[in-house]
């Protein structure tokens, strides 16, 4: 698997933005339980970075306030990235909400419910069979 420069820079930006969000942003609107950077897509000319953010929280208001806080912090994050990563141009950052972790958790929950109901049905069948054997 071959990585080009845009992929390497995207991974580095992902690490740096994660660090900035966790340790340096003091915005009280970032109040969600878990904020993580899932992926960064860089343009080939390294001037644009699309950052996919996963916010895991049940309260939709907290998710929207966290996204607004990240949007307002873009200039600060961009300046920090330009200081930490030596690039000719500091990339323009855009944040996109990625709900794939939440979606995966929901699917996992549904599968667990199906598994539990299947186990209950199997237990009922075994009980019925054992009652039928005891009658004979």
From TrEMBL:
<protein>
    <recommendedName>
        <fullName>Ribosome-binding factor A</fullName>
    </recommendedName>
</protein>
<dbReference type="InterPro" id="IPR015946">
    <property type="entry name" value="KH_dom-like_a/b"/>
</dbReference>
<keyword id="KW-0963">Cytoplasm</keyword>
<dbReference type="InterPro" id="IPR020053">
    <property type="entry name" value="Ribosome-bd_factorA_CS"/>
</dbReference>
<comment type="function">
    <text>One of several proteins that assist in the late maturation steps of the functional core of the 30S ribosomal subunit. Associates with free 30S ribosomal subunits (but not with 30S subunits that are part of 70S ribosomes or polysomes). Required for efficient processing of 16S rRNA. May interact with the 5'-terminal helix region of 16S rRNA.</text>
</comment>
<comment type="subunit">
    <text>Monomer. Binds 30S ribosomal subunits, but not 50S ribosomal subunits or 70S ribosomes.</text>
</comment>
<comment type="similarity">
    <text>Belongs to the RbfA family.</text>
</comment>
<dbReference type="InterPro" id="IPR023799">
    <property type="entry name" value="RbfA_dom_sf"/>
</dbReference>
<dbReference type="Pfam" id="PF02033">
    <property type="entry name" value="RBFA"/>
</dbReference>
<dbReference type="InterPro" id="IPR000238">
    <property type="entry name" value="RbfA"/>
</dbReference>
<keyword id="KW-0690">Ribosome biogenesis</keyword>
């Amino acid at each position: 698997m071959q990585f080009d420069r845009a992929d390497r820079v995207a991974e580095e930006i992902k690490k740096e933005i994660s660090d900035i969000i966790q340790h340096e942003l003091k915005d009280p609107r970032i109040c969600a339980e878990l904020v993580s950077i899932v992926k960064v897509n860089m343009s080939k000319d390294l001037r644009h970075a699309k950052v996919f953010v996963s916010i895991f929280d049940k309260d939709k208001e907290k998710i929207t306030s966290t996204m607004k806080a990240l949007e307002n912090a873009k200039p600060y994050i961009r300046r920090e990235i330009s200081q930490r990563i030596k690039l000719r141009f500091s990339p323009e950052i855009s944040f996109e909400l990625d709900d794939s972790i939440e979606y995966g958790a929901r699917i996992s929950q549904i599968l667990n419910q199906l598994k539990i109901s299947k186990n209950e049905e199997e237990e009922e069948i075994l009980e019925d069979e054992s009652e039928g054997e005891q009658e004979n």
